[in-house]
Structures are given as structure tokens and as C-alpha cells.
Amino acid sequence: MSALSLRPARHAVPGVFVALALTLVIGWLVVLLDGGQLFNQSTTVSLLHVAAGLGLVAVGQTLVILGGSLDLSVAFVISLSTLVAAEAMNGSDGAMLPAIGLALAVSAAVGLLNGVLVTKVRINAFIATLGVGLLLKGYLDNGYDGPAGESAPALVRTLGYQRVGPVPVSFVLLLAVTAAAWFALSRTRFGHHLVAVGGDPEVARLSGVRNDRVLITAHVLCSLCAGLAGVYLASRLGSGAPRVGTEGLYDLESIAAVVLGGTALAGGRGGVLGTVGGVLLLASIDAVFNQLEVDAFFKQVIRGVIIIAAVAVYARRAMRKAGS
Amino acid sequence: MRVAERRPLPLRIRTDGIAPIVALLVVLLILVAFVQPDFLAPSSLMSFLGRSAPIILLAAGQYFVIVCGEFDLSVGSLVTAQVVVAARLIDSDPSRTWPVVVLLLAGGALVGLVNGLVTTVLRVPSFITTLGMFLILVGAVYLWSDGAPKGGLSEEFRRFGRRAIEDVPLLGRIPYALLVLVVVAAVAVVLTRSDFGRTLVAVGDNPRTAELSGVRVVRTKTIAFMLSGLAAAVAAILLGGYSGVSFQAGVGLEFGAITAVVLGGVALGGGRGSVVGAMLGALTLETLFALMNFTGVSGALRSTVQGVIILLAVAVSSLRSSSSR
């Protein structure tokens, strides 16, 4: 089963990286003709920052989607996590680590709730996580009008702004999380089981996989990733922000990144490396458009077209494979 | 073949499906009657139904898409886009009202057509198709209006959303929105009882079987998306009239419509549920919000309650269906 689950992942990865390379080359040329520089320090840094935030969420999203589930609550988990972290820190370095722990614990609890609703109560994942998201939205809307709390200065310095050369610490964090997720998926029993559950839940169950436990774990990990993204955003913003998750469209964009990365929306096929490719692709398109000073709204139109077109290309390829 | 099996029993299946939502609605109405007896006076009840018309229409449109196994996440952004486009095109000139209304309906159908073709012919999951359409529509409408809505709606256009036939015996008043709703609801019910409606359910129940038994799945699903787009256009005309022009006009409506549909007993993934259930689901949701208003619950908590309700409704139905097995 493990060999079976790994093979498609290897197939799926290159596509998005070819697209990424093309985007970067064409983008670089176009920006150059326009009299700018795509790869100067500040654009590269901001590209990587954008990728870090979206990437953390998308890696978690990959896990649930691989398992045949979905998480629409991540945007609200992110907002909640920024608030929990920033309010618990309240500007004090001493409270930083416990506060981060608290934010992650709260996020994990939301993931646990999502997982239990999807597996034990058997609510369709779309509805379950939408419902949980609405619960959180009500809490956030009711309790907060604007930014609250203050991130610890040490957190802002390190995770928020420190860099290793042109690479922000946050992007290093994304790489670490990606490596951990990749390892979990390809080298551990949990990973093989998750892909099996996503591929065919009934077959997985009959071959002795505890489907519920595996999916709940995936949901907890997904929420943890969203919580981590929240901690990162709190470190960038310096405070908790009740609407940062939804305004960043992290729910929909993370799903788009996962799908761009070649993971099947129905589960069972794909991997986190492709997702990071998808995230970098979205961030690069953003960076190119920023350099060209393309209208923000036009950018959104193009992004919608690109997402649909990319998925259509994947679908076409899958159809051809099935036909041959 | 399944289509044929269903024919003798459509009425019974329907009433079975909507019993829980009717019960919930009645309970809510009784609660409202306790908290705010005036609410049940004919004229205020009529106004309430008129105000609820847009979300009920959207739920009906969403029903067609969901019952054949798809999603339409673009309806909220479509409503926003239509309202902003209408204001700019009409530009407060009453003579342009009707041409623009026709244009909006055509636009809604066109967006549905694109959604449907991309989903069926290009085989992009409708979740992604309509999400992409959402991004495109929001981006396009901001782009076209440079970030601030321009122009204005004519009084004639606004009539559908905010005026009523006053001094009606017994009922007090009949909002135009309610008349529109009744007509659209009748069309929707007739559609679901037609061959098309049965085909739609068959496609959602088992696309493979449907295809093998000669159903044109591509055409059926595409028409479902067009109906959703049309419903969004009508909802936009009513909403624009009622609450005016803003970029917030349609925000979140897609999730409201999906909540309503699920609440009304329609299974996500398709194949089960009725359009009447979906519309009653929307009405129940609106009644719940009215109850919250009367009891002084903060408007911000609306979404929390919406979340609890949707989870409870689906949990109850899923537990019931697994125990009956």
C-alpha cells in the first residue's frame, strides 16, 4: 500500500515546479523589460514572507485533503491564534513561549473538534469545518473590533523580521514544517494510512487502518499548522488581528495552493512538496504583479483564471492517464 | 432505471424529507410569537417574507447545483457584482431599468453557463471552478468601478426590493419581493417535478449510472449552474433594491445559501432532498436571526448560532440515517 501511495506523489510534483520555473523566467523577463528587477533583495524577501504565511496553512491543508477531508475553518483559526498569542504575551518576552504554546493548544483543540465532527458524528467535512469556522467567526466578531494584545518584542524580532541572508526565519520555519510533514507522509505509518484513507476509506478500514483516528490526527495537525501561521502573523503585525485570516483568504488560497500542487481534491493522491510549489507559484505571481504595479483587482481576476486553468490541465492529464 | 423507480413515490419522499425542517420552523415561530407577538401580525409577517426572499431564492438556486452533486461558491460574489453593475449602468436613469434587469438576468445565466461548462467539460471540481469565479467576479467588479461603487439605482429598480402593494385586505401588505419569490418558487417546484428535475437527482445520486442510462450529464449539470446564476441575478435585483449599492451586498451569501440547503435536508454530494426543503431551510434560518434580534442577541453572534445550527442539523440527520441502516 505504501509503495502504491508514493508513486503518484512523485508524478504530481514536477508539474507545478515547471509552472513555477516558467512563471519566474517569464516574470523576470517581463519585469526587466518594464525596467525593474524581480530578484532584488526586498522583492525576494517579501515573496518569501508571503509564501511562509500561506505555506504553513497550505501544508496543513494538504494533510486533511490527502485524507479525503477539507478544512474551511483555517482562516478563523489563524485569526484566533494571533489573538490568543498576542493577548497572552501582552508585550512581555517572558510570556512568549507559554503564549505560543497556548495559541497552538487552542488551535489543536479546534482541529480535534473538526476531526471528531467529521469522523465520529459523520458530518460532511465541508459543512463540519464551515460550521466550526462560523462558530469562531461569531466569537471573533462579537469580542473584537480591531487589533488586540501585543506580541512579545523578541518574537517580532526573530520570527517576524530576522533573516538568514535574504531568507526570512519564517520561511525557514515553513521549510522545517514541510520537511516534517513530508517525513510523516512518506516514512511513517500515519502517513501511509492517511493516504490510504483518502484513496479508499473502505479498503483502508478493511485492511486494518483506524480511519477515524488517522483523520482526527490529520485535522489536529492541520489546525496546528494554521495556529503556527497565526503566531507568525502575530509576529509580523505586532498584535492580534481578528480578521487577518479571512481578509487574507487563507482558507480558499490554501486549498488552491494544495490543488495547484497536484494533490487531488478528493484525497489519496499528492504531497506537501507540490503544495509548497503551489504556494511559491501563487507568491511569485503576486511578486511579479507587484513589480509591474498591476492593479490589485486585476491581480485577483488573473489569480482566479490561473487557479481554474491549472486545475483544468491536471484534470485533462488525469483523464488521459485513465483513458490509456 | 433509478429514475423510473422514483416515479410512483415522489410525494411521500418529499414530505418525509421536509418534516424536520417544518417542525423546526414551527418551534421557532412559536418562540418568536412569545418574544414578539407583533411579529405574527399579517403585515409584519409579509414584510419579513419579503426581506427573506433573496436568501430563499439563492437557496433554491443552490439546491439545483447541490442535488446534482456540485457546489456554487460564486453566488455571493455574483450578487455583489450584479448590484454594482446595475447601479453603474442605470446611473439613476429610470428609462434604463428594464434593459438592465434583462441584462442582469442574462449575465447571471452566462456566469452559470461558464461555471457549468468548466466543471463538466474541463472536469475542474466545482469547488475550484466557482471559487475561481468568486475571485474573478470580485476582482473584476472592483476593477471596473475603481474601488468605489458608482452611479445609482433608479426608483423603479428599487421597487422590487423595497415597495409593497399596501392596504391589502387580510394580509395588510404584499411586498413585490414576495410576489417575485412566489413566482420563482413555483417555477422551481415545477422544474423539480419535471423530467429535468428527476434527471438532476439521478445525476447526483449516481453520475455513472445516470450516464449509462442515457442521461446527458454535461447538459443537466450545466443547466443547474445556469439556474443558480439566474437565481443569484433575481436575488441581486431584490437585494439591491432593499439595501442599496455596496461591495458588501452579497458577502457570505453563498455560505448562507448552502447552510439553508443543508438545513432543509438536502444531502451534500447530491441525490437527496427537495427544493421546498431548501427554501424552508432558508426561511428557518431567517426566522432564527429574527428571533435573535428580538431577544437582543448581538448581531455578531449570528454566525456562531448559524454554525451551531448547521452542525446540529447535519449531525441529527447523519445519526438518524446511520441508525436506520
Short description, anyone?
Chain A is mainly α. Helices cover 78% and strands 1% of the residues of chain A. Chain B is globular, with a radius of gyration of 20 Å.
Strand content of chain B: under 5%
- Specify the helix fraction band of chain B: over 70%
- Uncertain segments of chain A: 1-10
Shape of chain A: globular
Average pLDDT over all residues of chain A? 89
Major sheet summary line of chain A: 2 strands, antiparallel
Q: Which stretches of chain B are low in confidence, meaning pLDDT under 50 for 5 or more residues running?
A: 1-15
The DSSP helix count of chain A reads: 14
Global morphology of chain B? globular
**What strand order characterises the main sheet of chain A?**
1-2
Gap between N and C termini of chain A:
23 Å
Report on the architecture of this protein.
The complex is a heterodimer of chains A (324) and B (325). With 324 residues, chain A is mainly alpha-helical. Chain A contains 14 helices and two strands; from the N terminus they run ααααααββαααααααα. Chain A has a two-stranded antiparallel sheet. In chain A, a hairpin with a 2-residue loop joins strand 1 and strand 2 (167-168). In chain A, helix 2 packs antiparallel against helix 13 (272-291), helix 4 (96-119) packs antiparallel against helix 10 (211-237) and helix 6 (153-161) packs across helix 10. With 325 residues, chain B is an all-alpha fold. In chain B, strands 1-2 form a two-stranded antiparallel sheet. The interface between A and B is large, with 44 and 44 residues.
Keywords, separated by commas or semicolons:
heterodimer; A: 324 residues; mainly alpha; two-stranded antiparallel ribbon; 14 helices; 2 strands; globular; disordered N terminus; B: 325 residues; two-stranded antiparallel sheet; 74% helix; 3% strand
Layout of secondary structure:
The complex is a heterodimer of chains A (324) and B (325).
Chain A: H1 2-33, H2 41-66, H3 74-89, H4 96-119, H5 125-143, H6 153-161, E1 163-164, E2 167-168, H7 169-187, H8 189-199, H9 201-206, H10 211-237, H11 244-247, H12 250-260, H13 272-291, H14 296-323
Antiparallel strand pairs in A: 1-2
Chain B: H1 2-6, H2 10-35, H3 42-67, H4 75-90, H5 97-120, H6 126-144, H7 155-162, E1 164-168, E2 172-175, H8 176-193, H9 195-205, H10 207-212, H11 217-243, H12 253-263, H13 275-294, H14 302-323
Antiparallel strand pairs in B: 1-2
Helix pairs in contact in B: 2-13, 3-8, 3-11, 3-12, 3-13, 4-5, 4-6, 4-11, 5-6, 5-11, 7-11, 8-9, 9-11, 12-13, 12-14
